[in-house]
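Sequence design from tokenized structure. All designs in this work follow the same two-part layout: the structure record, then the generated sequence. An example of the structure record is given first.
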């Protein structure tokens, strides 16, 4: 007996209803991207390994899916290296390409490669799948879509302000009220590391701090100790763990903690500008919140850091994130090009909308009307009407087989098609149609013009 087929863990099949709902999210985000002046690009699903490796920190590198070289990829491996059985040493010999981990690094590569064709500042959006060799769990998949918007070629903090507004506009358009846009600044994190004497361990410090919500204060301190951060330095972090209050009060506390750090004070100035400008402009439904533990373990952020959390009461990780990366394109040879961008987590947004029952009912209907098939002559008569309905942008279809009427009606019910049209001998003779509302059971005799009007 043949083994039942399956798919890899962390991937999913999507049925028609799910695809329709996903497209609703895609289209909503895309429309807001374009309202804000962003242009679309696409990049390959896989990149040269050297493009991706080393850009996400040690943890990120481990989660990159490597692609084996074509052909006999082991033939060029030295025997001694093979016998050593070191996967890290052998990887570069047998794999030259990798699936993209996110859309930001490929975008940086794109900017450098096409710099002579681009008008700066360049505002782009990109909606494509990415892959991560992560442990699958609720809201975390190995294959998922990202929806990114970035600006390169401007160091103005007005870009950060615009991205806060963009988040607010997208989630308002999705009717997802009450999201929290958390913001921090890498300069503040650098300043804190400086104050506790751990400037040389900034990445270790931020990676550990970023886990505070997940593993708690004591575990974070333990991880920092294991990374070589001194205990007296960690003790200086205590005011940070207890920081609370509104944006302004947290800023005032940070001014005290970072009084001796020029870098930290620059971060405070930037966050204050963003907050003050947003207060002047206002937000529709989202809330801007300072979170000094927000670190996001990616080592290319240099300024503002964003993360969006779902409304209170919904157990879900971040549904969006991003930040400024002043030196990202520099690693590909293009210096002094500042960039800032954000990403939307489509799959998590989907789960939140589903949990809160926020998907519009109308988006799930693939067809608005099904014509019942009573035979070849009736089918041909129906197809002429279907052609006119489609010309008027009404989703319409004919049941392909002359099956029992009960079977055809059950098909319409299971497909959640709201209307059916019956064309029998009487309708053929009178050149009209019987339109039935599947929800109410009401039936009406209509001509073609009336049919189009009722279904349009």
């Amino acid at each position: 007996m043949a083994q039942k087929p399956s798919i890899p863990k962390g991937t999913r099949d999507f049925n028609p209803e799910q695809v329709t709902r996903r497209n609703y999210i895609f289209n909503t985000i895309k429309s807001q991207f374009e309202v804000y002046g962003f242009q679309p690009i696409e990049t390959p699903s896989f990149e040269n390994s050297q493009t991706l490796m080393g850009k996400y920190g040690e943890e990120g590198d481990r989660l990159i899916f490597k692609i084996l070289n074509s052909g006999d990829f082991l033939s060029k491996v030295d025997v001694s290296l093979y016998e050593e059985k070191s996967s890290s040493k052998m990887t570069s010999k047998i794999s030259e390409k990798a699936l993209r981990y996110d859309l930001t690094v490929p975008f940086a590569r794109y900017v450098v490669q096409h710099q002579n064709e681009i008008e700066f500042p360049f505002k782009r959006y990109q909606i494509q799948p990415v892959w991560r060799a992560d442990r699958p769990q609720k809201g975390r998949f190995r294959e998922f879509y990202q929806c990114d918007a970035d600006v390169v070629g401007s160091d103005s903090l007005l870009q950060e302000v615009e991205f806060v507004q963009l988040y607010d506009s997208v989630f308002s358009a999705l009717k997802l009220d009450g999201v929290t846009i958390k913001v921090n600044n890498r300069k503040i994190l650098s300043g804190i590391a400086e104050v506790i004497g751990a400037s040389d361990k900034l990445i270790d410090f931020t990676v550990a701090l970023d886990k505070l919500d997940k593993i708690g204060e004591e575990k974070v301190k333990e991880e920092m100790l294991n990374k070589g951060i001194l205990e007296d330095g960690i003790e200086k972090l205590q005011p940070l763990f207890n920081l609370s209050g509104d944006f302004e009060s947290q800023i005032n506390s940070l001014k005290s903690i970072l009084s001796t750090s020029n870098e930290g004070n620059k971060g405070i100035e930037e966050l204050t500008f963003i907050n003050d400008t947003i207060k002047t402009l206002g937000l529709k439904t989202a809330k801007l919140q300072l979170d000094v533990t927000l670190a996001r373990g990616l080592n290319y952020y240099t300024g503002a850091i964003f993360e969006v959390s779902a409304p209170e009461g919904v157990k879900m990780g971040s549904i969006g994130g991003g930040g400024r990366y002043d030196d990202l394109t520099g690693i590909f040879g293009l210096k002094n090009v500042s960039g800032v961008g954000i990403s939307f987590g489509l799959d998590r947004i989907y789960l939140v909308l589903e949990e809160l029952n926020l998907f519009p009912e109308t988006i799930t209907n693939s067809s608005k009307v099904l014509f019942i098939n009573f035979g070849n002559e009736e089918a041909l008569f129906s197809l002429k009407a279907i052609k006119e309905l489609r010309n008027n942008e009404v989703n319409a279809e004919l049941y392909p087989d002359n099956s029992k009427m009960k079977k055809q009606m059950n098909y319409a019910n299971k497909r959640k098609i709201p209307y059916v049209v019956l064309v029998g001998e009487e309708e053929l003779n009178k050149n009209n149609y019987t339109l039935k509302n599947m929800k109410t059971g009401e039936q009406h005799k209509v001509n073609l013009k009336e049919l189009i009007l009722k279904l349009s």
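The longest helix spans residues 16-35. We note this feature because it recurs in several other targets discussed in the main text.
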